[in-house]
Amino acid sequence: MTDLLIVATALVILVLLFWYLQLKTGFLSTRFFVQVGGLIVIGGLGIYLGIRLLSLSLSVINILGALALFAIAVYHLAFTFFKLTTEADSRYRKLHKANRAVVNYDMKHERFVVTTDDGVKLRGVMLNYHPEGHDKAVIVCHGAGRSKNTIPIVQTCEVLATRYVVFAFDFRGHMESGGEFKADGDTDADLKAVIDYVRGLGYQKVAVFGWSIGAWTALLSASRGRLIDAIIAGSPPPINIADTRQIELMQRYRWISLLVRFGVAVMRNFRARLGDYALQITEFAARVPANIPVLLVFNDYDYTSRVDASKFDELYEKLPGDREKLQLPGKGHLFDWPNTYFLWTKMLDWLNARF
Fold first, then answer.
1. What region does 296 belong to: left with phi over 0, alpha with psi -120 to 50, or beta?
2. What is the mean pLDDT of residues 267-286?
3. Which of 47, 245, 262, 335 maximizes the CB count within 10 A of its CB?
């Protein structure tokens, strides 16, 4: 019985420690094998304790306790399975899930840290392969539930770095950055902090490439007067954020929102909670200064926002000034092979002409 208490105590401590590190820090987000190992150990201990309880007696209390332990085990082991098959950059991941995988930067880079006006610490990387005196920089903003280390973001940064100095960072609540993500306009403070940092380094011209919520943020920041010289907006949600599938589910099933938040913290390496969704992209996009050129990129059908190209066309018509659009064929959410190659080519050509 003593050994059972020891194992039970170890399980409780491990569960509390694991979820503290997962929900409050970026420690596990950058240590894949530690994260998966913790999930496996928790799952294994849960199964072991459940079996031991049932072996003692089949009383109602023991049966209920064993079921609870099995539920805990299944919950954690399920994350292990999905991490290996969808999120990890491993041989177990299916090819079409590549845009979720997390990788490191192979090219030489420098790390930086900035603090937002509301006190959130953001972590990022700079790729600079150009002689001193280069005065143009591109800031890359990832999508919700992704990060600066998501495969298409890393690849895009390395492509852009062939011509420009590139800065990529994690939005609040994502990967290595602090804070919590609400998607209610809070990311504007993040982009502003990075723009100020880049400008402070002496770069005279700053472009922003954003993907999904990153594109949404770029347009919002421009509408608020942030010092941006050009924007490539890739698949910004053309609808109210509150109408996106992820927010709808969290609002509809608030009673399980805590379990959902735990899940996305593991599966997508970010910490999120519901916010106040009053901002409308069709309203603030119209306030983007006319002197900022914008390239809007979208698919025939966006499977994340669940809208067809007509919604993006409506958004495009709201944009003032120098604007251009690129419609990628088929269903997708910007980074879907082989469209990615056409996107990179267009981005470089467009920036060369407008930036």
1. beta
2. 84
3. 335
Q: Which CATH superfamily is 104-354 part of?
A: Alpha/Beta hydrolase fold, catalytic domain (3.40.50.1820)
The mean pLDDT of 230-259, rounded to a whole number, is: 78
For 159-173, how does the pLDDT look when each residue is reduced to its tens digit (9 = 90+)? 999 999 999 999 999
What is residue 85's three-state secondary structure?
helix
List own/partner pairs for 50-55 with CB under 8 A and 24 or more apart: 52/4, 52/7
The residue ranges of DSSP E strands in the chain, in sequence order, are 110-115, 121-127, 136-141, 165-169, 205-211, 230-234, 294-302, 307-308, 323-332
Q: 216: left (phi > 0), else alpha (psi -120 to 50), else beta?
A: alpha
CA distance 140 to 69: 43
Helix H segments across 25-59?
32-56
| pLDDT for residue 95 | 45
Q: Give 121-146 pLDDT, tens digit per residue.
A: 999 999 998 877 778 999 999 998 88
DSSP character string of 104-163: ---S--EEEEEE-TTS-EEEEEEE--S-TT--EEEEEE--TT--TTBHHHHHHHHHHTTT
Q: How much is the pTM?
A: 0.84
Domain ranges of the chain: 2-93, 104-354
Residue 204 in contact with residue 173, Cβ under 8 Å?
no
210 pairs with which residues across the strands? 141, 233
**Bridge-based pairing state of the strands 323-332 and 110-115:** unpaired
